[in-house]
Amino acid sequence: MNVNLTPTQILAGVGVLLVLFMVWRWSARKARRAADAARASSRVVSLAGRVLFMGAGFTGVQWLVLTHVHNPTLVLVVLGVPDLIAAYVLTRALTVTSMDTTGRRGGGRR
C-alpha cells in the first residue's frame, strides 16, 4: 500500500503539528503560572492558620497557669517563653536574607 501525498498536504500536516505543539506549550506555561499563584496564596492561608492555632495554644496555657498556679516563677516562665518565641519569629521574618521572586522580567537566561 502506497501513500501518495502532495507537497501541500505535507506542509499542511507539518503546520497542524506545529500549531498543536504551540498550543500545548502555551497551556503548559499557563498551568505553571496558575499553580505558582495557587501555591503562593496557599502559603499565606497556611501561615495564618498556624499563627492562629499557636496563638490560641499559648493563650490557653497562660490562662490555665495564671488561674490555677500560684508559683511566681512558673508564671514568669509561662509569660516569658511565648514572648521570646515571638521575638525570634519576628526577627527572622523581618530580616531579609534572600529575594524570592516568582516571575521573570527582562532578558535573563533560564
Summary?
With 110 residues, the protein is mostly helical. It contains two helices and no strands.
Structure description:
With 110 residues, this protein is mostly helical. Helices cover 77% and strands 0% of the residues. Helix 1 packs antiparallel against helix 2 (72-94). The chain is rod-shaped, with a radius of gyration of 29 Å.
Features:
mainly alpha, 2 helices, 110 residues
What class would the helix/strand composition place it in? mainly alpha
The number of helices is 2
pLDDT under 50 segments (min length 5)?
none
Helical residues, percent: over 70%
Largest sheet: none
N-to-C SSE string, H for helix and E for strand: HH
Radius of gyration: 29 Å
Termini Cα gap: 47 Å
Shape: rod-shaped
Binned strand content: under 5%
Mean of all residue-level pLDDT scores: 81
How many β-strand runs?
A: 0
Write the layout of secondary structure elements.
Layout: H1 7-68, H2 72-94
Helix pairs in contact: 1-2
